[in-house]
TrEMBL record:
Homotetramer. Its EC number is 3.5.1.2. Keywords: Acetylation, Hydrolase. It is an enzyme of class 3 (hydrolase). This is Glutaminase. Pfam families: Glutaminase (PF04960). It catalyses: L-glutamine + H2O = L-glutamate + NH4(+). It comes from the Bacteria. Substrate binds at residues 65, 117, 162, 169, 193, 245, 263. One of its GO terms (molecular function) is glutaminase activity.
Amino acid sequence: MINLQMNNLPTLLEQVQAYTSSGKVATYIPALATANPNDIGIAIYDKEHHCISAGNAEVSFTLQSISKVITLALALMDRGQDYVFSKVGMEPTGDPFNSIIKLETSNPSKPLNPMINAGALAVTSMIIGESNEEKIARILRFVRTMCANPSIHYSTEVAISELETAHLNRALCYYMKQNGIIDSDVEELMDLYTKQCAIQVHCIDLARIGLIFSMDGFDPYTKEQIMPPNIAKICKTFMVTCGMYNASGEFAIRVGIPAKSGVAGGILACVKDHAGIGIYGPALDDKGNSVAGLKLLELLAAQENWSVF
Ligand SMILES: NC(=O)CC[C@H](N)C(=O)O
């Protein structure tokens, strides 16, 4: 059951509100620039049918990099661990999420992990389907099941905005194609990746996804095992080691729970066997993480003694 102390969510939001002014909304995807930098919201979903929320918990935003854990789970179910990890590594990187440098310097030349853009693009290329329509429909079905929200869709505007400007991601794809990591048509892959990143949710949806991962893939409401427990565990382990990009080490110390952020300002977090958390705060720090969102999780994890360490 959600601890009563958590009824202080509005007070915690007040404490972190000021942090929103120290961050900046992402603009490299032009459609993200219209977000309100002052927004901050949170939802917590626990396994006993309680959901609490505060602030801008029902403002919709795009998953962006949070989609990387979702497609990783799907690719692991589609292709199995041996295949996925023959193409993508398991090690964290100290570089920014969109960096190309390790692709050239690591041997063998494969992306270090599935949470950086190169790794996520390779993982997306593994999703099974006859066409992009079928692949995005499968990804959407998976997200809708986890959120118990059949109305979830992607934003065409955000997907196109990214597709038109994602030259660095294209470069990552071409580099990987040259080195045999992917064999998809690059434009097709970019089309699918930008749609997956543009899937729209709000904090309550995100918290429910977090709950499914917290419960090792089991949905305590429908009693359905949505993904095998070992796959949920792999995803959560990547969240701990690489989920907050090159700020994952500091996050492990300050917060200490599996989490994944996205440049639209979302953070998905998992409290083991207990609850999922969805946070939205589009003002980002220089590593691409929600400034106020990070502070909020830090206060909450300390208050509730949630660190896994
Ligand atoms: N860090 C992110 O959220 C990045 C996702 C974004 N779609 C990109 O590839 O650049």
